[in-house]
Every structure is written in structure tokens, then in C-alpha cells.
Recover the amino acids of this structure.
């Protein structure tokens, strides 16, 4: 049991958290296969399609999120209540995610070897 | 459980908020305990803790010096994510030479990559992010 859990909780562009968290996940995929990524709090907003980032003076990292699949990071989740709170459907998001409950997240956290939050 | 190995991940800037100072106190507490601090990994805004150009007023704490003291006294590796560092103007000697810039990273800190962060995270019994 040596799972790395990465939690994405920040809104996009307001900080570099999503970009630097994603860099950390992609680099970790070279070291271990056992990676879980969870989007919750404001994190699901990072995955909204049709983002225009030019005006925010940042590079769009949406295409980089699509790399998760290419790097064999397949355990990618979004918390069900966060989707509801943000008024989002899964179809609003640019990558395919599995939906999990708070109870599932608690279980993931309990089983994870380490948790990094961005 | 006793004798745990800790990895400290510092994501907070060297000045302006309390987190980095808090991380240093936590690191010191680990070294004074029966536990081991395997490394301190500076990421995101935390890379500023490795600045060689920090110049606080003489009656203020220089956190960079404190990290260096910790590293020297307890043999703790002070690792800096080079990609996050370069984006924030923190450049080590090698980068400075190749980009024709001035080196701004203190030489007590070691440039590292994010794969190393993952490896250290897997090796440590506890990972603390501040």
C-alpha cells in the first residue's frame, strides 16, 4: 500500500496551484502506478471546457489535464457534492472523471500513503 | 509507532505569511525528537526560501539562514524544484550560466525535480505540506 493521493481544490488561474499540482502528478507517474487524483472544493472549475486564458495572462493548462490519461493516471475523481454546489454537470468538464462521495474520499485518504493538496 | 521518517514540503513564500516560519519550527521540532527529517522539499512559492538575495533588516529573522543552519547541523537535504524556481526568478549556478543570468539560489540548496518529490513521498512515513 503506497498510494499517492493528489487533491485539486483551487480555482483555475487565480493561483498556479492547478498547474504546479498537475506537474507534480505527471512527474510522479514516472515513479509509481498507484496515483489517485481527486477534484473537489473549487477544483472541478479547472476542468471547465471553453476556457479563454489569454486575458488572464496565463497559459491554458486544460490540454495538460488531458495528458493524465496518456500518463496512465486513470483514477481521477470528482466529488459529487462539489459538482452540485458549483452547478456543474460532468458534461461541462473536459476530461472523463469518476464521481465519488465524501465517504469514498475519506476512505481514499485513510488508505493513501501520502496526500498532496494543490 | 516510533522513529518515523518525515518529509516536509514547503509551498509557502519566505516572507509575507507565517507558513514558512511555521514549517521551519516544525522541521526543528522533528530534528529535536526521536524522529528523522529525510528532506525539506521547496515547491511553488516555497522556492523563495532558497533565495541568496534575501536582505531583511538586521533586527529581523532571515529564514534562508535558518534553513541553512538546519540543513548543516542535522544533515538534512534542502531540495528546490528547479522548474517552479525558474518561473519565480530563482536560478541556480548552472541555469544562470546557460541563460546568461545572475545566480539567485543559495548554494546550500539543491535543485531537484518533481519525480524526486514523489520518490521521497513514497519513502517517508509522514509527508507534511505547509
Amino acid at each position: 500500500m503506497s498510494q499517492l493521493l493528489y487533491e485539486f481544490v483551487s480555482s483555475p488561474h487565480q493561483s498556479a496551484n492547478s498547474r504546479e499540482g498537475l506537474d507534480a502528478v505527471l512527474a510522479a507517474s514516472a515513479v509509481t502506478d498507484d496515483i489517485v487524483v481527486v477534484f473537489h472544493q473549487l477544483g472541478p472549475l479547472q476542468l471547465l471546457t471553453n476556457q479563454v486564458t489569454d486575458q488572464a495572462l496565463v497559459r491554458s493548462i486544460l490540454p495538460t489535464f488531458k495528458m493524465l490519461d496518456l500518463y496512465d493516471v486513470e483514477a481521477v475523481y470528482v466529488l459529487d457534492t462539489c459538482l452540485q454546489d458549483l452547478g456543474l454537470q460532468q458534461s461541462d468538464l473536459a476530461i472523463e472523471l469518476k464521481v465519488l462521495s465524501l465517504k469514498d474520499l475519506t476512505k481514499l485518504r485513510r488508505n493513501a500513503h501520502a496526500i498532496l493538496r494543490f | 509507532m516510533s522513529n518515523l521518517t518525515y518529509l516536509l514540503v514547503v509551498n509557502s513564500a519566505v516572507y509575507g505569511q507565517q507558513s514558512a516560519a511555521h514549517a521551519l519550527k516544525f522541521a526543528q521540532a522533528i530534528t529535536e525528537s526521536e524522529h528523522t527529517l529525510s528532506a525539506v522539499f521547496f515547491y511553488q512559492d516555497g522556492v523563495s526560501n532558497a533565495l541568496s538575495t534575501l536582505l531583511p533588516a538586521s533586527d529581523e529573522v532571515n529564514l534562508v539562514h535558518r534553513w541553512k543552519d538546519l540543513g548543516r547541523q542535522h544533515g538534512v537535504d534542502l531540495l528546490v524544484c528547479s522548474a517552479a524556481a525558474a518561473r519565480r526568478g530563482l536560478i541556480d549556478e548552472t541555469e544562470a550560466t546557460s541563460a546568461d543570468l545572475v545566480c539567485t539560489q543559495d548554494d546550500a540548496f539543491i535543485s531537484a525535480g518533481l519525480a524526486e518529490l514523489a520518490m521521497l513521498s513514497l519513502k517517508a512515513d509522514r509527508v507534511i505540506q505547509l
User: Anything to note?
Assistant: Helices of chain B lie at 19-31, 63-74, 82-87, 93-99, 114-123.
